[in-house]
Design brief:
With 120 residues, this protein is an all-beta fold. 0% of the residues lie in helices and 51% in strands. The protein has no helices and eleven strands. The strands form two sheets. Strands 2, 4, 5, 6, 9, 10 and 11 form a seven-stranded mixed sheet that branches. Strands 1-3-8-7 form a four-stranded antiparallel sheet, with no helix packed on it.
Length: 120
Amino acid sequence: QVQLVESGGGLVQTGGSLRLSCVASGRTFSGYYMGWFRRAPGKEREFVAAISYEDGRTYYPASVKGRFTISRDSAKNTVYLVMNNLKPEDTAVYYCAANGDYSEDKYDYWGQGTQVTVSA
């Protein structure tokens, strides 16, 4: 059974930083893409970042490019999202996801989410 467990969320001031972690288990993720998404209250789910587990290639939307960095540690089966220069509009529940193909929308596996709150 595939499990994705996020951690690292919390309350931070504007301009601050956080590092989210996602520990994956239950299958081999070689060849998979790992993604981060977020959902703010009253808004649709938003793609935040993705990384190829195979070669480390990364993908970001314009809204976070240059501020967020996704990485993976294959030995630990862990994916990270470092978020710098956080803004109040980054406040959301952040979800880790895994999929066999690159996607900015449909993923096979999802974590339970971790709350990130950025105060003004």
